[in-house]
Amino acid sequence: MSEYRQIKKELKNKKELIACAQQLGVVGDATRLKICYLLCCHPELNVSDMAEILDTSVSVVSHSVKKLLDLKLVERRKEAQTVYYSLINNDFTNKLKEFIT
Amino acid sequence: MSEYRQIKKELKNKKELIACAQQLGVVGDATRLKICYLLCCHPELNVSDMAEILDTSVSVVSHSVKKLLDLKLVERRKEAQTVYYSLINNDFTNKLKEFIT
DNA sequence: TTATTATTTGAATAATTGTTCAAATACGAT
DNA sequence: ATCGTATTTGAACAATTATTCAAATAATAA
Question: Which nucleotide is nearest to A79 (CA to C1')?
Fold first, then answer.
């Protein structure tokens, strides 16, 4: 029985797989992936402009970027009233670019 | 006004971005990503074995692989009563491997 | 100060997705 | 034919996630 003891154990310790699933889940949404795509071409964009480009409300963009922010996929820079978002350059976003460009 | 006419248009035609979001959404789930991970090491596995390895029911595995199947991420080979699943070798799964290995 | 613009927040609700379980199917063996 | 094993299916329900909207915050200008 259980010829799978080893791989079961291996999988149990793979916390990064779960984290990866979570990140993939966040970018696995049309609005959020479009935002990532936009931020691949444009170094930074503010919420209103993204909303205009994506033909949606500032509220959905704001909620969307918040999720990307929470998982450290984007970062914000505030200038007066407007806040600019840009893709963070890390392992995950670099691999992500392979998918969307 | 609209300095974004071009990118808006470009985005509208990007059907593949939507498709990609859908695929990423499917692998952006712990169970399904684990299945993909398993199929990276093991050339093929059947439903019962995956259920044992993942400590879950055959029903959740069956439902899960169905979603992977629908998006052409895995394929099935039936041998008597048991059906073996394997990762399809395509653009998406190759990029996916970068994330999980 | 009030007004304006940009963004965030939270809560209500809508919609989607996951889980469970029992029944159905498929196949080989008896 | 019936039985046992493997898998799929669908429906009910649970849980998560998305969307909407109005109110709140922040910053600047008048």
Answer: D27
Is residue A88 within 8 Å of A72, Cβ to Cβ? yes
Which bases of chain C are contacted by protein, using any atom under 7 A from a CB?
A: 5-10, 17-22, 26-28
pLDDT digits (tens, 9 = 90+) for B15-62: 999 999 999 999 999 999 999 999 999 999 999 999 999 999 999 999
The mean pLDDT of A20-26, rounded to a whole number, is 98
Of B11, B18, B24, the CB nearest to A24: B24
Residue nearest to nucleotide C27 (CA to C1'): B81
In sequence order, which residues have a C-beta less than 8 Å from that of residue A54 and are 6 or more positions away?
A31, A34, A35, A38, A61, B11
Parse chain B into domains and list their residue ranges: 2-100
Could you name the CATH architecture of A2-100?
Orthogonal Bundle (1.10)
- pLDDT tens digit string along A40-69? 999 999 999 999 999 999 999 999 999 999
Neighbours of A85 (CB within 10 A): 25
* Token pair recorded at residue A86: 């840009």
